[in-house]
Amino acid sequence: MTNLSVTERILGGLWGAVVGDALGVPVEFQSREQLRQNPVQDMRGYGTYHQPAGTWSNDSSLMLCTVESLEDGFDTGRLGMLFVRWLNQDHWTPWQEVFDVGGTTRQAINRLSQGVEPEQAGLIDENSNGNGSLMRILPRALRYFDSPVEALLDHAHRASALTHRHVRSQMACGFYCAMVSALLKGADTDEAYLQAIRATKPVYERPSYSGELPAFSRIFSGSIPSLSEFGIRSSGYVIDTLESSIWCLCNTENYEDAVLRAVNLGEDTLPQRL
Q1: Which of 16, 93, 139, 211: CA 20 to 30 A from 10?
Q2: Is 105 exposed, middle or buried (0-12, 13-18, 19+ CB in 10 A)?
Q3: Per residue in 152-178, pLDDT tens?
Q4: CATH number of the domain that 22 lies in?
Q5: In angstroms, what CA-CA distances link 245 with 34, 131, 179?
Q6: Cα dihedral 257, 258, 261, 263 in deg (nearest 10)
């Protein structure tokens, strides 16, 4: 691997997320069996949403809103304003068209547009644990990767809360950010996973989080890389998405293989690159 600067790796992570997203758009919701018969090997057009090849989804649009919001530091008010602009004015969309908006995300952004405080806008019921906030959290991890772990987790939790306020979604975002932090500091993929466990588990064993530990049992066991493909679920549930992203990363050697493996797992096929 060539020696890349932190800036180059950050830009590569952002571009990689958008490219991976666009790879998955045409085949979203196809089953794993369907994709075994006709696997994605390159950029395709049309398909599920009848969009041209290279079209990214709402996940990348909201990720790019998150990048823009960080120009002036951590400001969830500005982030919420940009989310509203995306939904209502097609901000950061590839073709001036919003499509594939999750119900939880739409309801939360509508609450933002009605004046609800940003960090109170997200839905908090257990059924609102889709992967929407996880899919856009990467810029927070990249911006604050060298912060103390509790500050990094706080940034992740607060950013998630705009749309996904349930503590499980916040914790998934926090774990993801801790793993990205370890990667940017030079850890290899397996070690970054283990470092994220060591960094986050003491925080998430506290009473305000510990009730959610059963949902993270496989992640905190350190076993995700050793699972077979049949043990990996690829639905839009936030835990499934976090587990599958770790599994794809730790079982491949390069970006291309990782992102194609993620897409070809099927179901919710839009990968968020670690």
Answers
A1: 93
A2: buried
A3: 999 999 999 999 999 999 999 999 999
A4: 1.10.4080.10
A5: 20, 12, 11
A6: -120
